Amino acid sequence: MANRILNKLGFTKEDEIVGVDIGAASIKVCLLKKTKEGRFTLSATAHRSYDDDLLHDGNIIDAGFIGRELKSLVSSSGIKVRSAASALSSYSVITKRVAMPFLEKEALEESVRLEVENIIPFPLKEIYYSYYIMGMDEEKEGMMNLLVVAAKKEIVDGYMNAFDLAGLDLSVLDVDIFAVTNLLDEIYKPKGFSVLAADVGASVTNIAIVKEVNVEFTREILIGGKYVTGEIAKRQNVSYREAEERKLNASPDVTDLLQDFISNVSSEINKTVNFYVATKPRETVGRIYLTGGSSRVAGLKERVQKETGIEVEFLDPFLFVESGAAGAVAEEEKYSVPVALYLSSRRDEN
Ligand SMILES: Nc1ncnc2c1ncn2[C@@H]1O[C@H](COP(=O)(O)OP(=O)(O)OP(=O)(O)O)[C@@H](O)[C@H]1O
Ligand SMILES: [Mg+2]
Hints:
The protein is an alpha/beta fold. 37% of the residues lie in helices and 29% in strands. It has two domains: 2-92 and 153-349, ATPase, nucleotide binding domain (Nucleotidyltransferase, domain 5); 93-152, Dna Ligase, domain 1.
């Protein structure tokens, strides 16, 4: 009873969850609130970048450091919520779609376990896994489609440890590219064609192709902004910080490196589109959405559009929140906040 009254007064914040995206080069946090009408407003968003890598092969390198930084980022953003949602990097997660007949819960769990043993190249005791029922199989009668997701225990435990040290309770763990594709689906609701999403980050470029609500295909390419900065530092014999500055200002002496980067990313996106339509001749990719800090490299969007012949736009996460709510937020957050923003909307599932 007391709880219900508190809820009405809006004193309990239990149902709010802070979204935290830990990337190779940055930590981003975001908190959404829900209005009485059930729309989201943006309550807080913040972002810190680092010169040193925060992740190695998806593992948090220094949980103590992340814990401290996260704690200070959350408190300096005025976020009081303790419950948190985060996402693993897609390259440290194995996902597989499997078709299975309808089974009782226990039999289904046993079948999933056998499936996981087959598809995961590690002993079962070294991984955590879960599955989602995606729906009926359109082609095979009596079958349903499951999405099986598995990650190494040491990676997940590293996240738990870091959040613990930050004084947060990690209650949802997603996969970064799925946060992007789910957000994209919520905002644009693409119908009649497939769309491609590319998150061009610091160490990796994640690509996904989505048809209606289904993720048809994902791919990770080890190309990102850190490599470009590292090359500038090496070739021009300057510090990483100075090299990063030269890159962000697109100074004339880094043009060739930026052009190489643009050409690599664009060519990989184009190859992905071609591969997809070759395997699914009835499908077309109708739109490409770009996000991630490195998608801002000047000329990348235009190059992708020219090479693929598909219209390209930047994913605008703020379309997910009430208009005007994002007014005061820096423009650059648009490219970095999508994962954290979507994660904060996942509170209702708990
Ligand atoms: N205006 C800009 N022009 C070019 N590069 C930029 C710009 N702004 C940010 N970047 C680059 O974007 C990268 C950070 O992007 P992002 O925050 O998406 O990465 P991350 O999430 O930390 O990493 P990852 O997703 O690879 O784990 C950095 O390499 C940074 O140099
Ligand atoms: Mg990222």
